Fold:
Amino acid sequence: MTLELNEFQQGALAVPEDFDLFLGGGRGGGKSYALALLALRHVEQYGQRARVLYIRRSYKGLADFEQVCRDVFGMVYGTDARYNASEHLWRFPNGAIMELGQLESQADYAKYQGRSFTLLMVDEAGQFPDPSLLDLLRSNMRGPKDIPIRMVMAANPGGPGHHWLAHRYALRAPAWTVFHEPRSKREWIYAPSTFSGNRFIDREQYRDQLEAACPDDPELLRAWVDGDWAVNRGAYFASVLDEKRNMVEAWGSIPEGWKTYLAHDWGSSAPSATYICAVSPGGREGTVAGRYYPRNSIVLVDELATHKTGNLTAGLGWTVPETAENIAALCRKWKIPAQGVADDACFAKAGHAAGSIADEFRQCGVRFIPARKADRMTGWNRMRKLLANAGKPDVAGLYVSSECRYWWGTVPYLPRDAKKIEDLDSSAPDHAADATRYGCLRIQIATSINLGFAA
Structure:
């Protein structure tokens, strides 16, 4: 029986095995079928020495691919290829093995530690909010000299991992061209697909279903339909955030008459994010570098984001004193008091010998009061409203300096929560967004009672 392939699948199979592959198009392009075909070819070429590992973030996500494999392998091997559903393991008549596995946490990695695979395939990679576990899994890629080890990843734009996938693969080079990816030290090819190029599905009906799935999120629809990683990522803030309106050039100093405070989201293993918030007094003093900011507009002037280079979700492991020292240095640079608002959790006494994280900060000269963030939606709605109002001449808006690189590298990409569409997906790198939310909630205190700090 002849296997029929669409043009995208033919292109993916035509890429030499010496190159790793990122199958990163829109939905419905045939990526899962392409993964099964790539696995099939590897199994046929290398026989009993082939060891294939297919990874999803959860076991629940394996079900669809199991059926794809049954269809593809069944056409080639009939009943000679056997699948053990309890072990999620395919055994092929030539001795090759393919395992369907799950990887969600460091504990899950223990299942693979010390084992070797010649082909590593990651499906729905956008469900991984950061690449650390997948990077770790590369250490399992080993094989004989005459078998090229290879990693193949598949993802749609718009998920929690959009930011790192776009940065590493989709926006690194034009489609179907070789590029060097420094983290893996490998040559890669980005192979995009869209449902419009998949002649094996009812394309008109499929588009109708995509449109019905996101009626109020045109950016997400565009990402799914066009496979465009450069759109505003089907993001939570897509309809209210526009770089042309919200981004401002770097300031050299805080203008006279503007009140300031810090907005902080604590993290150690995860990044912490701290922003200098400047509040416009309106009137004559509200104009900076020829741009007018209505009264109570907030400008995020600068940031301190403690993330590892090249990884926006991993913190530097700084202690409170280390973080406080750097926050104090940032405040000295801008000649402002080291005081502001922080996540309410910083004020919990349990488990902290010094009283609380906020108490430790105070001992180091950085003074925070609780953001009193209430429910998340109150904060998000206020932040979204301020973002949407930016650029209007008579209402307060939220503006962010181009110097806030962590903010611009994460916030525009943050996706909606798939189960609670009005909320933000908290598995994504939301530290800058959380700090901003706290700052937006506390503007009334900042402008009316100077943050309420005791003398």
About this structure: The radius of gyration is 25 Å. DSSP finds 15 helices and 20 strands in the chain. Confidence is low (pLDDT under 50) at residues 444-455.
